[in-house]
Structure formats: C-alpha cells, structure tokens
Amino acid sequence: MANVITIVCFVRMWNSNGGILERNHLLTEKQSRQLLEWINMIEYEVICLLDGAVEEAFGNYEEYLNNRK
Fold first, then answer.
1. Whole-prediction pTM value?
2. Chain-centre distance for alpha carbon 50
C-alpha cells in the first residue's frame, strides 16, 4: 500500500508547477492533465478500498472508460 501512496505523491510533485516534468518539457499540457486525472482516480480508488467501499471504488474509472468511447 505504501508503494501506491508513494507513486501518487511523487507524480503530484513531479507534475506540479515547476516540477521536473514541466521544467524538462517532458509532457504537453494535455498529457499533464491526463496524468493528474489518472492519479486522482488511483488515489480515490485506494481510499475507497481502504474504507471497504469496494463497489464505489472503481466508479470513476468506469465513467472514464465510458467517456473515452
């Protein structure tokens, strides 16, 4: 579990204004927004699973997949 939280924290730090991804022009603005959207989904899913809300955990991801069609 600690690894997932670490990934979320590092991605937020690297993707922030002035973060390594921005400073080195590694992502476009669109890619940066996409990465943040994924991290938000992962973080929410982990929180739901830790709280025992298994049915609710992947609702945002399912909505994301449905909107991509």
1. 0.82
2. 17
Identity at 59, one-letter amino acid code: G
Task: Give pLDDT tens digits for 4-52.
Answer: 999 999 999 999 999 999 999 999 999 999 999 999 999 999 999 999 9
Segments in the chain forming alpha helices (H)? 2-15, 20-23, 29-50, 54-57, 59-67
What is the spatial distance between Cα 1 and Cα 22, in angstroms, rounded to a whole number? 28
Token pair for 25: 């022009």
Question: Tokens 């670490």 map to which residue?
Answer: 6
CA–CA dist 68, 21 (Å, integer): 25
- Phi-psi category of residue 25: left, alpha or beta, with phi > 0 → left and psi -120 to 50 → alpha: left
61: exposed, middle or buried (Cβ count in 10 Å: 0-12, 13-18, 19+) = middle
